[in-house]
Amino acid sequence: MEMMSGQQFLLAKLDDVARWAQASSVWPLTMGLACCAIEMMSVTAPEYDIARLGSEVFRASPRQADLMIVSGRVAQKMGPVIRRLYDQMADPKWVISMGACASSGGVFDNYAIVQGVDTIVPVDVYVPGCPPTPDGLLYAVNLIQQQIRQGGRGGVLARA
Amino acid sequence: MHGPLGMMEGATSGNQMVLSMGPQHPSTHGVLQVLTEIEGEVICKADPEIGYLHTGIEKSAENLFWHQASTVIERMDYLSPLTNSMCYVLGVEKLLGVGDRIPERAQQLRVLLCELSRIASHCVWLGTGGIDLGAISPFFYAFDLRENILDLFEASGGARMHPNYLRIGGLRDDVPQGFLERLDDLIAKFPGRMRELRRLLQNNPIVQDRMVDVAVLYPEEALAWNVSGPVLRGSGIAYDVRKAFPYSGYENYEFDVPTRTEGDAYARFLVRLDEMDQSMRIISQVRKALVPGPVMLDDTKVAPPPKEAIALSMEALIHHFKYVSEGFRVPPGDVYQAVEGPRGELGYYIVSNGENRPWRVRTRPPSLYNLQVLKKLAIGELIADMVVCIGSLDPVFGEVDR
Amino acid sequence: MPSPQAPPLGNHALDPTALRPEIDDARIERVEPSGLRARLQALKSEGFTTLIDVGAVDYLERRPRFDVVYHLLKLPAAAASVAAIGTPERVRILCGLDAGAALPTVSDLWPSADWPEREVFDLFGIAFDGHPDLRRIQMPADWEGHPLRKDYPLRGPGLEKTPRPDFALKSNVPAGTPASGKTAAALAKQIAKIRGQDKA
């Protein structure tokens, strides 16, 4: 970006502006499944406050959300529902797999839990913890913002 | 044909429509699908569909040692994890025959933490209940109070949720330095915060309009549908497991069991608010009565050796090795242990066949039965009242689906 | 998971029910399937207004194999004070039955039995005659097997690793896309930058 001296406007690349806008307003989908959802609610609470990172609202409709935070264990019945929600989200979209259960099945290595939501949807950031502290989720959103600023998918920590 | 993504077949007549609420919904308090048939705005039939969070916890518990199983069991009612732990360890202690030898300090701290857990759970209920109705502010106040409680859990148990602090035989360790001072600060802060929370919602005409005379449950129905907790007490039956079948020293503390007779959503709302006050009353009494002493049973079979001894004593090392790799055996038998959770009577039917693993842990989940009555409660209400119905029942799906 | 060096200790009790009278958590009765409904009806008319829970246990090697466990509680219908409740009576009814047998439903006596009976059917395979809507409740409708039976493997039948579900196949990034190597290269570059080696 450059400011032309004496003039009242600044120049920037459209890509940069678009990425800045996207990164500053990542709106998550309200998809709380289990215990991690409660920590996700704590993240919206005043102590951790995700709104200051740009996630001012959590949208219930997948059409209006950018980020799907899979917060909690994914049961066999819930798998197709998550896939359908992911497909309904408009591009560009990102996915955070929050917690051990969403990332890999967690403590529940059994018939009932899908062993990792990345068997269903592509995941950008994995957050460890059972449940992760809200700080962990804030850091994950920071990483998503970093990925966005570096150019959509394919940032350092994403699946290429 | 019903199904998770399918609608009810069979065209309905006239103005009727089939609407699927959930399983992803901002106000269903978790993964619930309610298949509703509505005529205009009035609900004719509501069929909740559960199982979207079925985790196989009971089967996992059968494959873990007795002291490991409490980690998965704690994840059932994830809004008040210590309640699950409490019920489980009490049941196992009965099977072991050590239920009356638990040190007094451990019992007191257990009561303290369970009541804190109850307040934390009701904070989530209050906050999300407000959001369901469109009142966003109480959520922030309630969660601020909850953060104080979670700080205490983190200090004592190591984690904000699921600390696995309550162990068979007592507690994992005594509370750290500074814990009691922070607890005193919370006790001092609580009345003012509770006044604010009440002022935000209790006499608000919109809240009253939306909750009074909605989702009415009569006492005979409440018993037939086997609801418990604030849902039952809001319908006029003062059954509280802490009073009826006292455990862990609850008989030593003075507290009331708030009961209302109207049976509507507003009655349950008031009951839960009053319960938060009563919980703090118990906490203050426990704080004053807290005695010094050990927090773990002095029984080498059940208690792990102290960490300091392991490096110095061969017996302690062997004991620790066997404890961790083999667990301990619980004499054969079965027991039904119930505690009063924030949602009602939480019970575990624990069967031991003499091995080092539980044979069966059957949960009596209060939320399952509380949610089942939705089939009856929602009929005749407006579709906009569905969230009030569900919110007033306060289900937690980790418990419903396990 | 328990250590593989510590298999079950063996020497276990085949029928551990009702072995501990000193625990005294409930009055325990064992009832045959043929007499179950009559007994429960009698208890209901005695004042046991609440069916606290219906559950099942699989004892595998014992005959009868399963136990369906009914917990009942005697609560008065109008008791607005703690004193009026007192210490209610609890009853535990154990009903043993073999695999493939069915029990009569009690969902007409207590409507709260609806979902728990469905759950017992879903997870154990025990059918309830006369149930208005007996279908799976926790597992998906097309699931095969009854997971809480003792001979059902913990991780599901024949699965070494949970396979990729078939509903993961539609996407703009196909499931199963292997890592392209760009990630590894980018990571190496980032590490080099942090270590100051890219300038060298």
Descriptive notes:
The complex is a heterotrimer of chains A (160), B (402) and C (200). Chain A is built from five helices and six strands, in the order ββαβαβαβαβα. Chain A is an alpha/beta fold and 160 residues long. The radius of gyration of chain A is 17 Å and the shape is elongated. Mean pLDDT of chain B is 90; it is low at 1-11. With 402 residues, chain B is α+β, with helices and mostly antiparallel strands. In chain B, the strands form three sheets. In chain B, strands 1-2-3 form a three-stranded antiparallel β-sheet. In chain C, helix 3 (114-124) links the parallel strand 5 (102-104) and strand 6 (127-129). Chain C has 200 residues and is α/β, with parallel strands linked by helices. Chain C has helices spanning 33-46, 82-85, 114-124, 182-194; strands at residues 27-31, 50-58, 66-73, 90-97, 102-104, 127-129. Chain C starts with 26 loop residues before the first strand and ends in a 6-residue tail after the last helix. The radius of gyration of chain C is 26 Å and the shape is elongated. Chain C has a domain at 27-157: 2-Layer Sandwich (Beta Polymerase, domain 2). Chains in contact: A-B, A-C, B-C. Chain A binds chain C through residues 76-77, 79-80, 83, 86-87, 91, 105, 109-112, 114-116, 119-122, 153-160, and chain C through 1, 138-140, 143, 147, 152-156, 159, 161-162, 164-165, 167-168, 170-173, 175, 177, 179-183, 186-187, 190.
Question: How far do the termini of chain C sit from each other?
Answer: 49 Å
How would you spell out the order of helices and strands of chain C? EHEEHEEHEH
Q: So what's the oligomer here?
A: heterotrimer
Specify the CATH architecture of the domain at 27-157 in chain C. 2-Layer Sandwich
